[in-house]
Amino acid sequence: MPRTKPTLKLGVYGTFDINPEQAVSSYFESKLQDELYNKKPCWDVPREGLQHEAIENEREYYENFEQQEILKKKAAIQSKINEKRIDEMHLTQAQLREKFIGVNQFLKECTKKTKRSEVQITEQKTQQEVLSDEIEAMRRDTIELSIFEKKFREIVEEFQPYVNVFNEVIAQSEYESFEDLINHCDSLMLAQVEIAEREQELIKGIELVRQKMVDSTAKAAQRIIELNDELAELERCYSQAKSETFKWENTLSTAKDYITENEKQTITLVDSIQHLYELLAKRNDEKTKLKKFDVGAQLDYIRDEIEILEDIIKRAHHKMAKEGQSMLGEGSNRFPNVADKGSNLSD
Length: 347
What we know:
The protein is mostly helical. Among the domains are: 1-43, no CATH class; 181-284; 294-347. It contains 5 helices and no strands. The model is unreliable at 10-14, 25-33, 42-46 and 326-347 (pLDDT under 50). Residues 217-244 form a coiled coil.
């Protein structure tokens, strides 16, 4: 009988139910069924289709396995061939590397030779330029020498009469040759030049001495004027210093008088401080440890004692005010100016 629900998933062969649990409620027991989860084949599917398919699959497997073995053998042969090719490639690579190194070395040598040749070319060019300049200079010198030779010949021809005169003088004088005459003339000319130089030097020396005398006279006159001015200035300073001295003498005399008067007051005040310190120390039953001229320490001691007395007086006032009495009424204010004196001493 038909199912109430269609099959949701089909197998590889088209009618094999993969999910029979979802269609259990649609099955009826049949004598043709051995199990509840087996579906009755359809009319267009052979009963032994699965077995046929398994046989076909097994045949395909064996065929694929044989093909795989053949491919493995071919792959092994190809791997050996590839290894041989790789070895040949490595050999070829090594040969090419050696060739490359040789070619590279050859190129480097070519580059070095090119640079060396360029340097040599530049040096040869510079040397050629220098030589060409020297050749041109020699050509110019040759031209100048030829011109000078021509002028010199003209001058020789011009001075030929003088040569004849010199020869006649040599023949008539005591000179043996033309060179002796020329040397004598040169010595006379040099002596004349030296005499002229010596004369110029003496003239310069005389002029220098005269100039020094004039300068010395001018400096001496200027120095005398400066000394006169300094002397007048010193006289003015002396008169001013003398007047200032008189003023300071009067001031010092007044200061001395004032110092003597204040010294008396200072001694009296120091004695008073010493006496007051001794009284306070005696009051406290202490020995007088401070010396007479140790005024600062004595004043500190007196100030401390006066502060203690002021504190006592304040406390007494406070106590009497609480009891309703007065320190003034009982005659206890026997030192009315103690506080003022203490404040003055502390200042």
